[in-house]
Amino acid sequence: MAPKLKDPSLLKQDVCYVNGEWVKAKSGKTFEVFDPSTGKLIGTCPEFDAEDTKAAIKHAAAAFDTFRHKTGRERSKILRKWYDLMMENADDLATLITWENGKPTADAKGEVTYAANFFEWFSEEAPRIYGDTIPSSVPGNRVWTIKEPVGVCGLITPWNFPAAMITRKIGPALAVGCTVVAKAPGETPFTSLALAELAHRAGVPAGVVNVITALGNTPAVGQVLTTDPTVRKISFTGSTGVGKLLMKQCSSTLKKLSLELGGNAPFIVFDDADIDVAVTGAINSKFRSSGQTCVCANRLYVQAGVYDEFCRKFTEKVREFRVGNGFEQGVTHGPLIHDRAVDKVEQHVRDAEKKGAKVLLGGHKLPDLGPNFYQPTVISGMTSEMAMASEETFGPVAGLFKFETEEEVLKWANATEVGLAGYFFSRDIQRVHRVAEHLEVGMVGVNTGLISDPAAPFGGVKESGFGREGSLYGIGEYQITKMVTYGGMGQPLQK
């Protein structure tokens, strides 16, 4: 039985939001979206193509000419109204997230609050867009800067946080005066479309926010967004491979870029850590959304002196999980997004087992629940030769590595092409500063497994991308700095 929405009009079937109106694909084509828990059809969405995307860009460009001149306070009020509407409709948004993504209702409600908070945060930043006055080295010159919106922005978001990833991009874009064409994830488009409906109700001017959908045509839509000269910025969250392709395409018009790509987060427990705190942190980091987050702990390194204790306590906690349909009472972990994700998890587990690791808990598919379910799994005796040491699992599997020294674990932690997040647990203040500075990542969690916050800059280094989202730094990603120099201003007053 399909879940019920308090406001059924938030479920948008067969239409996208372009120029303040709900429109179909010009071709009339649609694609199907399925519930990952049950495999049942949720509904259909438009299969936008290149021409549909170009039309959305054209409307965004026309709207930019007006929207960029609204005051920061005016834009602030629009974002605040959108935030209020999200909170008023939080239950329905959470229902849509659980329905199309699979995460349990409690997690989905948490995501809605997190997502809405980006609108609240950037509504407060919108009136505070400051430039600088700069002392000139040339006598008589006066130098100052203006912060201006970069222009039309193409936003491409993933399925794992269908509400938060789009608000984290739209919030700063609108705060500074940009307009956007947001391509919703093909697996989870209905949450994005519901947010577009709330944008309409919030009074977002026509053309300022455009939300489009595609599945089979995703490469074609992406190519238009990355090559159309009207689009001045691309913000993408997703895999490193796709990010590299989009960056290559953007080079044709030298667009401003923000890329938040794959991770392979190290999670380090030193022998002076509070083990209970470390276990809680590992649970929060590793198994959030069934391990389907880019900042999930992927490699858990535990120092030899506390390895056995940590393994035992950690496994006991994971044993308490209950896997099932996200709408069911008491379920802590839902399905993976599709069977291909399950297959990758299975491959990693079998590879580790084949190379000498020991499965302490789980380690198998759950076909009785459906094709997309996998047991929460704990594996000990991990080594660097195993696939999980170098590849992002993106599933509910925790591989535990034993280490001896700080130097050893930092070498292992940094032995990867990516560098998004890293975590470690220690009560030695000198070690805290030393390790935080040596980890080659964009974000470090010290004695915590949860680091996401609208006030904190989110982003990575190396092949995890560049640019920051959220925080004061996230605003700058949607701005250009214009310098103005006045000459002949320095003649002294005659007495």
From TrEMBL:
This is Succinate-semialdehyde dehydrogenase. Keywords: Oxidoreductase. GO terms for cellular component: cytoplasm. Its EC number is 1.2.1.16. Residues 22-484 form the Aldehyde dehydrogenase domain. It is an enzyme of class 1 (oxidoreductase). GO terms for biological process: gamma-aminobutyric acid catabolic process.
